[in-house]
Fold:
Amino acid sequence: MAVRTATELLGSILKSVPDGKCLKPVGTRLRWLIVGGVALTVASCQLLGDGPGVGTVVPGTLRPNLATDIGAREHPRVVATYGGIYKDDGAVRAVASVVGRLVAASDDPSKSYKITILNSPAINAFALPGGYLYVTRGLLALANDTSEVAAVLAHEMAHVTASHAIKRQQRAEAKQLANKILTDVVQDSEEARKALISSQLSFARFSQVQELEADAIGVKTLAKAGFDPYAASRFLKSMAAFARYQSADKSSSSAPDFLSSHPSTPERLQIAVRSARQIGAPGIGERDRDRYLSQINGMLFGDDPLEGFVRGRSFLHKALGIGFTVPQGYILENSPEAVLASNGSGTAIRFDGADVSGYSSLVDYMKSGWINGLLPESVRDTTINGLPGVTGAAITQGWSFRIAVLRIGKTGYRFIFASRSPNDTFGRDFRQTIDSFKQLTPTERARLRSLRIKVIKTKAGDTPRKLAIGMSGVEPSRRLEFFSILNDLSPNKTIPPGTAIKLVVD
Structure:
């Protein structure tokens, strides 16, 4: 069985919210967090708009068949889950400019596609049956040339032409039925457990094989369309570097998760490089860095303003006028469901909001039944920066939780800390975080601005260290690392004059 992480356990402690809903602050209102998941097992690559060329079908017309019906049904759910469609003329052109060439070079040139740019900072791309392809603006921000974007799209087109999503759904349904039979019929619980694990491994490997197949097909399509075939391996390296940058636990094992539906990055890199070498030596094909970066100049980077901002170790929400800071060593993530944070010691944090207007006191709310394993005697009233609050503790599934709810008007802002091995540091981090929660002053709110991609040309003597100083929204100690990953440049080498590079500024 897979070991659950503290971050995963944060969701399980929420047994039931009194009115059946929990919410996360968004914009000038509070958006309910009951977000419909995608029912179909999509060929998602976890990498890891309406306008010319995007949000339109090219070429031809989608055929009215089963795959098309599934894609059309799931499309609105995908768009809603990923923050809507991102509409930016430059980003649209950057994607649209490669689609026709890839379609013509693909295994099925008659196939039609609908390409959507999603308003999400996540590095992700995936496909639905019927030719529905998706890339996030976060992925476009990480890419450094047209060939890297083409590599992603070629990979997703391969999923469609190989009908991977349909095959994966059929395999998932078969696995679900087999698992039900095992649990209903097999009397030996240990044998049933082993059979279930074997079934999980088989399905995971089935999905992994699909990913590797799409990698190989995608590289061939990329080269046939005239793009640099090594772009696939180059972008895989960038994604792996960015994933390491985002990880709070730098010392965690790099061993692959065999229950993952995606092969380990080294395995994918080997396939991508080998496929490219079969075509030719490095240096062939079009990359087009300057034109691509000029197209994404000014593009939104990171969190959408309606979702609040992550600035280093602080989360700030301009419209709601709130903010808090996590202790040193924690890395924040502004997910669609909640604001999350974790450190390298197994402690995780969840922050969201709930409607508490139906309760006469926060103590009543805390004890109303929405927390698994709550210790009633731990519940205490408190005041944080002039705001009424309540704190408490819970123990469930071998994990310890500390909970705080701070009230502003009708909203209770909730902090949940989780650790398997609570100690003095765990308690201190909890207290430090909730003590930092405050209402922003008008001046602080006015200073909060969105982060954007700014593209400049380097001058003689420019180095990554020098240019990284101008980056916003990143802790000073991590700016050089972030700049180097974002631009796929060595942090210790001088950059040739006239090189187009990306900065993140507000």
About this structure: The CA atoms of residues 120 and 219 lie 26 Å apart. The chain has a mean pLDDT of 78. Residues 189-224 form the longest helix (36 residues). The chain has three domains: 38-295, 310-446, 449-505.
